[in-house]
Amino acid sequence: MTTMANETWLDEVRWDDRGLVPAIAQDVASGKVLMVAWMNRESLALTAKNGEAVYWSRSRGRLWRKGEESGHVQKVREIRLDCDADVVLLRVEQIGGIACHTGRERCFFRKLEGNRWTETDPVLKSPQAIYGDDKE
Amino acid sequence: MTTMANETWLDEVRWDDRGLVPAIAQDVASGKVLMVAWMNRESLALTAKNGEAVYWSRSRGRLWRKGEESGHVQKVREIRLDCDADVVLLRVEQIGGIACHTGRERCFFRKLEGNRWTETDPVLKSPQAIYGDDKE
Lengths: 136, 136
Known about the structure:
Two copies of one chain form a homodimer.
Chain A: H1 8-11, E1 20-27, E2 33-40, H2 41-50, E3 54-57, E4 62-65, E5 74-81, E6 88-94, E7 110-113, E8 116-119, H3 127-131
Parallel strand pairs in A: 1-6
Antiparallel strand pairs in A: 1-2, 3-4, 5-6, 7-8
């Protein structure tokens, strides 16, 4: 692949054998970890360029502009890379206050209590109200 | 594999084809995302049982008790699971205030500025001072 001079930062990311890295989205105001999704080179480039999170949907095999169906866009305030260059961290403003396709604020709504995963976060909006009959 | 009645919570995790899931460690006080490592079933079970983070080192092919060489143990205050049950979130107290093997507070010490990854966090203790001649 030819690389433009201004794309060397994308070459520094250690894409896995599928060309992907995990990306963590963290709420910039609350500090809560909202979700983890995957990015390929194009999705990271678009995210940086436009300031809105774009992931790679492994199930659909295509770019996934977060919020494209739900309206729950993520405005990206900061992009970070870890020491091994194989995980990306986005600090985002979560539009609508809902990151999870279940209609909750965040995907990490289950907490281990003793030997049980307990749901700690309420559904703020039903998936049907968000997506109609589809889910994101 | 036989499962004890009190281990059904481990069955609910969607281990990948290598038997692993990514685990995010987040500082419980500052909210900063410190690092991402891998866990297998045994490491998650030990983490929950003992309240200190144990990961699976892919490079060494063995359990990795975080801090076993560095002393930078992670006291686990909360364990969370995401909606797809394939990512774990640990909220931890980071002993020594250093999570990264480079001697920095966190592994996400690089930030995208324009077209460049810029280091934003100082080295608090040199790797040599932490590990002697080895690195964790």
